[in-house]
Amino acid sequence: MASSTSGSDKVPVENNMRVEDIQRQGISRPANMSSMLTLLQIADSGFPTGGFSHSMGYEAALKKGHITNMVRFKEFVLSAMENVGSSSIPFVKAAYLKNSAMSEIEALDKLCEACLNNHVAKRASIQQGKSLISTSSEAFPDGRIKQLKVLINEDRVKGHHALMFGCLCAYVNITLSDCLEVYMYNALRTIMASAVRLGNLGPLEAQHIQYEMQQCIGRIIERNFDSPVEDTAITFPIVDILQNTHDTLFSRLFVS
Q1: Which DSSP letter does residue 246 get?
Q2: What is the rounded CA–CA span in Å between residue 120 and residue 243?
Q3: How far apart are CA 188 and CA 185, in angstroms?
Q4: Do the Cβ atoms of 55 and 194 come closer than 8 Å?
Q5: What is the torsional sign of CA 106, 146, 152, 254?
Q6: Which residues partner with 135 through β-bridges?
Q7: I want to staple 130 with a disulfide (CB 3.0 to 4.6 A). Which of 115, 142, 159, 217 is the partner?
């Protein structure tokens, strides 16, 4: 039976040791391991929140002739990410910090509803927010998630995605910085996955571009971190306008 040690004062760890054996011998996992695994679960494409039904305006931009080459594609992706940063990051942060005050979440939800003038983006935000809380209420035991589900079912909140995501991350003990980074990452991944499904990028090429573009996430968050929700705005209106035309497409694969 194989064993490994990292020093004379360490307890040998057998490859097939059970959790009970590890706890008995005093071998502990890192304190943040549980939060990291939960973060990976939420960020995983297998976590059913309906995200792959949306393209964040990419499908409309492509079919309206706005994206004609790789340079234009990368410009669109970066513009869409900047819009997420300036319009959503303040709401994600506010919901994270005020997660236990349901009256505050209701007020933030109303403000978010008013700020989303693009009916396609508003519809996508509500659909994904509801799906996130519905799935999370079954996956995680925290009663506050079920409270949010009740608020949504009673139509006291619309359940906008940025707010629901911020609350959820707070409830499952994910740090604020990780919460914001994963929110931005999910937005980027949504566009890249849409490009692959529409046949405009190969899977390997998409992964290469995603790695390149995600280097911008930290700077986008930093620029918008201290912005209050009252100052949220669309930084690149052309992306918002193109997404707003989604319902006029003759044929479409995505909901938004």
Answers
A1: G
A2: 7
A3: 5
A4: yes
A5: positive
A6: none
A7: 159
